[in-house]
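Hi U.,

Before I forget, here's the chain from the pilot set. I'm dumping it here mostly so it's searchable later in email.
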Amino acid sequence: MPVSLAGQLVVAISSRALFDFEEENQVFEASDDRAYMRLQLERIDRPAKPGVAFSLVHKLLAFNSPGAPRVEVVILSRNDPVSGLRVFRSCERYGLPIQRGVFTRGASPWRYLKPLNANLFLSANDADVRSALDAGFPAARVLPHAARATDAHPNEVRIAFDGDAVLFSDEAERVFQADGLDGFQRHEAERAASPLPAGPFKPLLEALQRLQREGTEEMRLRTALVTARSAPAHERAIRTLMDWEIEVDEAMFLGGLSKGEFLREFEPDFFFDDQTGHVEGAAPHVPAGHVAAGVANPA
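Structure:
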């Protein structure tokens, strides 16, 4: 029987999202890939420092148990195969059971998301993320300078999502940009009972809910909706999740307040938002990624 990842949560991640390769990346940008390859090979026995998405990956992999694979993490990287040696060596040193990887030496790797049937793609490369989103895969550009996750919740994966243009479509955001706050509130109040169309991250939230229901003694999952919506526009968001039969553990309707300090208290392993301002505001507090989707992110 051929090996299959069917039924598993599949996370594809670049080496710069998983590990802190920013010093090495400066060599690549200042010189060429051969200088980068030499440096990575020289450091092959030096484990790379954890990157922005390290905590998320480490905890998700803890959902696996003998005979019950629930999460698969695959390295999907513009790195060359030689530099990939250090990536796998670093995974081994940190006890990350990552066995699969695709290294494309500068070429965009996003097309390999399809045979992986990936539920999430995390990368530091904006073009790769946009291509993945255009192809229908949940994807986010990690901010390498973002804060690392805390150690406060070692047995709980915590993930926070923005609503419009992330979990939901950008329908309401388009109304807000065209008609302002009053028009937006009126539009959403009138349609409170009508579910919003799905956004790019609905499939990921569905997959996470399945993982949450399976649960293990070693690891749990906690999700949060963190949105600039406020009453009365909150109702449509909640009713949409109810219509999808998806539950979130926390919901923050902030009415334009800065999200960063609220996220600092929630302490997520990762936060997804489509607005660069919100992502940059969150980055000093928590691991954050930009979802380049919707009207706020023209091509």
